[in-house]
Design goal:
Number of strands: 0
Largest sheet: none
Strand content: under 5%
Low-confidence stretches: none
Helix content: over 70%
Distance between the termini: 35 Å
Structural class: mainly alpha
Order of helices and strands: HHHHHHHHHHH
Mean pLDDT: 91
Shape: flat
């Protein structure tokens, strides 16, 4: 989901950067999913994924894409795919906003000079946009990695870790162990794993920031 969010967020941000009038309105509309809480997003998608009364199954039947009601959480692969889809819908707007801010901070004079030299759109993207957007992409990925480390609400509402334990995360497993099996010592150990993961990612994020600041200062 993180890779898909990065690619889609970058693509949408590049498209928005080319929009003139109406960009704030379009950006605000595209950012609506990121403003919804994970639990509310999971509840809405849970109803849409419903077997008999879900919008996805009924739309697929009407369009002739499927011929029977489909259980989107009936197998491991489909359940993981469904969770990834919801996660992409919910958090791609965040990545889009971060990357759009990075794109808008790139001086327009660089693109004008590249056009004057005859550079194509792909060459401008590869030689100007991508290198100057690298730090912004790292920031977005690090923030999302920290967020995904403690993913819980989406799993709790959408699949409850099923089928079996195929969609369990570390945070959700900690909940099951502590509040369902009442193995509090094991749950406490798992919580330290989450804290350790977040700490490592945070330190890595701070190191990347410090390195970028040193590079900018030296230039």
């Amino acid at each position: 989901s993180l890779v898909a969010e990065l690619v889609l967020g970058l693509a949408i941000a590049l498209l928005l950067s080319r929009v003139g009038r109406g960009r704030p309105i379009i950006t605000a509309l595209l950012a609506i999913p990121a403003m919804v809480s994970p639990v509310m997003a999971a509840m809405a998608w849970r109803m849409m994924f419903g077997v008999k009364f879900g919008a996805i199954n009924n739309l697929g039947l009407q369009l002739g894409l499927i011929d029977v009601y489909f259980d989107w959480f009936g197998s491991t692969a489909l359940a993981i795919m469904s969770v990834v889809l919801v996660e992409m819908w919910h958090n791609t707007p965040f990545m889009m906003l971060v990357l759009l801010a990075g794109i808008q901070s790139i001086p327009q004079e660089l693109y004008d000079a590249a056009r004057a030299d005859g550079a194509t759109a792909w060459q401008r993207f590869w030689s100007i946009t991508l290198p100057l957007l690298k730090f912004t992409m790292v920031v977005g990925v690090m923030i999302r990695l920290i967020d995904l480390t403690k993913l819980f609400g989406l799993i709790f509402v959408l699949t409850y870790g099923g089928p079996g334990s195929s969609t369990e995360t570390v945070a959700f497993t900690t909940y099951l162990v502590g509040f369902k099996d009442f193995r509090m010592s094991y749950a406490a150990a798992l919580s330290y794993v989450i804290v350790g993961g977040v700490l490592v990612l945070t330190l890595l994020f701070l190191w990347v920031q410090a390195r970028q600041a040193a590079t900018t200062f030296s230039q």
